[in-house]
Amino acid sequence: MSYRPQRDRRSASWTRFDVALAQRAEQRAQRRSARAFAAAVCIAGAVLGAQWYGGESWRIGDIEVQNNDGVPVEAIIGASGLQGEHFHFADLDAAAKAVDELPGVEAALVTCRWEWRVRCVITVQPARPMALWQGQGGNVWNDFEGRVQVARENMPARLFIRVEDGALPPLGSRLDPRLLRALNELIAAQPDVTRYSYSSQFGLMWVNERKWRVRLGDAPYDGAMSDKLRLARALQKQLVDKGVEARVLDVRFVEAPYYIR
Questions:
Q1: Same domain, 111 and 136
Q2: Domain check: are 196 and 74 in the same one?
Q3: What is the pLDDT of residues 7-32, one digit of tens each?
């Protein structure tokens, strides 16, 4: 009698390896890695770019001042407010306007260029000296807008005014509008006369061709100096016709002129 073991008649289990599916999965993984790398590169580039764009190469540090003609360079740069500003955010018009307000400056032009660093140029148009005021405390001058500053040696001016009493016009201030108007009108009315004197009591004065002192005061309205000069000439003629020699003609108040012998 022989023994034969029973066969396992269950069907064998087979596993099929799908090559295409594995390749697709590997490709997806590679794409995810590439996207992550690209994102990391972009982020790093953005960070480095932001640091560079906000760095010193874009900040204004090199400022050249041209044609300042006695106005301190430090004052011009300080007034502009450009130092340390970013090239793309600096307000050049506001900077020029701020420099315009400085005594001794009539106008200013501000330009900036970037060539791997920022370079700015402030070109100043100096104010035209209108009157040089000479007093015991020194000399000052004012421009045609009435702004007062320290006078430079041998500077040209349309008018020279000797202060007989009282203080010089304060530095950094503006002349009283009535006084500034008077100076402008005197320049127009008698351009050949360049020397006047000033008194806190009598205002502007000048010595005419007969060596008479003419007290003019200031100009409370437009055309006041022309009215006063005409009155002074008419009064002088009357006195000369009468043979009267005067020392002083006072026409500060056109409604009540008088003379002193």
A1: no
A2: no
A3: 555 555 555 656 777 777 777 777 77
